[in-house]
Amino acid sequence: MRLFKTPANRYISLVSIASIIVFLVSIDFRNYSSHDWTAIYALVGAILLLNHYNILLPPKGNALSMDSSVFLASLFLFGLNITLYVLLIYSVIFMFTLRKMVWWKHVYNFSIYTVMIITAHYVFLYLGGTTDSIQPSNLIPYAVSLSVYFAVNILLLGIYFLLVADENLMNVLTGMLKEAIAPYVSTLMLSLVLATLMSSNPIFGLFLFTCITVLLSVAFQQHFNLFKKISEKANRDYLTGLNNHGYFKELLEKEVKIAKDTEQPLSVALLDLDDFKKYNDIFGHIQGDQLLKEFGALLEKEAKSNSYTVARYGGEEFSLLMPRTSLHRAHSFIDELRKKTNDTHFKGVEKLAYGCLSFSAGIAECSKETYSISQLLNQADQAMYSAKNQGKNLVQLFNENSEYTVQHSLSIEKDLEEAEQQLKIFLSKDVYTYRHSKRVYQYAVDFSRKLNLSDSERKNLILGALVHDIGKLEIPRDILNKKGKLEPHEWEMMKKHVTWGKEIISTNKKLEDLIPLVELHHERYDGNGYPYGLKGVSIPKLARILCIIDSFDAMTTERPYQKTKTFKEGIAELRACSGKQFDPQFVEPFIEIIEQREHVEEVYEDGNVAVNS
């Protein structure tokens, strides 16, 4: 049968059948007085009305319904039987008035409410709670039964989402608790307010509560609509109506996380209109703005048909976020868009170089090693300028071995002297760190020759090795030079050098490619490193390589707080930690580099190595 085809369907069927059986066993179909029936129908009417007037909560627009307040107030005042009557009548009416919802969802909702109400009722009675009126002596039974009502709801829904999403149960429950706890606490506490109002005059108390809730719903609806308008305005580019730069980066941050977690492809493209300055010079800024609007509209139309997100990135630059899209599929889409742009008439573009509107585009794809959205956007930017340099009206894929990327990397080499000058501050503060950085730099030069690295990677590894400990400039001298084991608070401060190093490097845009090496060279392959606990290939490749070089030099050089290892002991340590602290694919090649060196006879106190030819 289709109902039992998937685990989620089997779960829903099991819960529904069990709940209906429990409902039939628990309810007593007795004849009530007209006064009781008036209360029952009043409660049903209030629930239907309150379901229609939900309270919308910013920022996500989660709907807060007060139906649970009514069910619980009924439970505390009238007992289980009348409350089950209210639930049954309400569910039947709701099923017929909301026919768009598939029938099994109505049955499942009815089942969940049944379990929640019956469980809360028996917990309330077990703890000595009494019905008919609200009593201060029932405070503990009220609190516990409300908590149980909430917990049962979270558990039943959590298991369903667990089966559907195939996620960890604790992650599902934690996510639901974060989303639901505040609205639920409000709802459940209001049930006591409603019960108190109904204690003396049930109908009037229910009427008063319903009126207040409806008015709150209307007020919150207006508040939410205003919040939504302001949010949309803040996230939109005033000229083109597209998403703006800031909002695009927010969305990109989320999509990168999803892509890494699910291992789905994600591509990003940057587009720059060719010769737009010339168009502005000829026709003026007003017509230039109109061209941006028209191109933005074309871009949005094409992107929307593929469920892509488009934004105005700045000036005449636009960006595209393409989830679940590989690099080559993205290239196909952007190239078709380029041709369509060429074939679409825009006023005055015949005066441009190609006689039509054109753009140059660069595309980059997120990978496990993608360190940040800035890195991804920088790669797309490099590819875009490569397209510009090759004659414009082109789409270029990011390639680390491309001529433009290599030239960009070589320009970093010009900053080597500047970075080394900054590093020389250590000479007066911490001679060990200065000399350690110079040795790690030399290891990186040698190791980069052995590895199959692109020119870009090689230059970044070498320069990153030189400045990787730059953040230690912020560590107090007495901690840097302390002899003996660091105290826990001192160790915590020492670990911050990677974050401070990132901040120092970030001030120089030319060195931004080095940020992953500076910030992540203490991450471990097994996920037990710092500052983020990244694991495996989620750590950028160059940071994994630098971790090996940095650790080897640290363990084989005299330090104030640790005994020095011989090279032989250091090599044994590398092998012992391969697959744990270090990426195993780089351990043996690095050991070969060390073993190829001439035999070390003596390590002087200043760290220089004496060799015997």
Description:
Helices cover 63% and strands 7% of the residues. Residues 598-613 have low confidence and may be disordered. It contains 25 helices and nine strands. The chain has a five-stranded mixed beta sheet, sandwiched between helices. A two-stranded antiparallel ribbon has the order 1-2. Strands 8-9 form a two-stranded antiparallel sheet. The protein has helices at residues 7-26, 34-52, 67-78, 80-97, 103-126, 139-165, 169-200, 202-235, 245-262, 276-283, 285-304, 327-343, 373-389, 403-413, 416-423, 426-429, 431-450, 455-467, 477-480, 488-495, 497-506, 515-520, 541-555, 567-576, 584-596; strands at residues 55-57, 62-64, 266-273, 309-314, 317-323, 359-365, 395-397, 600-603, 609-611.
Instruction: Note the overall shape.
Output: globular
Question: Termini, distance in Å?
Answer: 81 Å
Taking the sheet with the most strands, its summary is: 5 strands, mixed
**Largest sheet, spatial ordering of strands:** 4-5-3-6-7
Class from secondary-structure proportions: alpha+beta
Helix count, DSSP H or I runs of 4 or more residues: 25
Q: What portion of the residues fall into strands of 2 or more residues?
A: 5-15%
Which residues sit in consecutive blocks of at least 5 with pLDDT less than 50? 598-613
Radius of gyration, CA atoms, in whole angstroms: 33 Å
What's the overall average pLDDT, rounded? 84
Percent of residues in helices comes to 55-70%
Counting DSSP E segments of at least 2 residues, the number of strands comes to 9
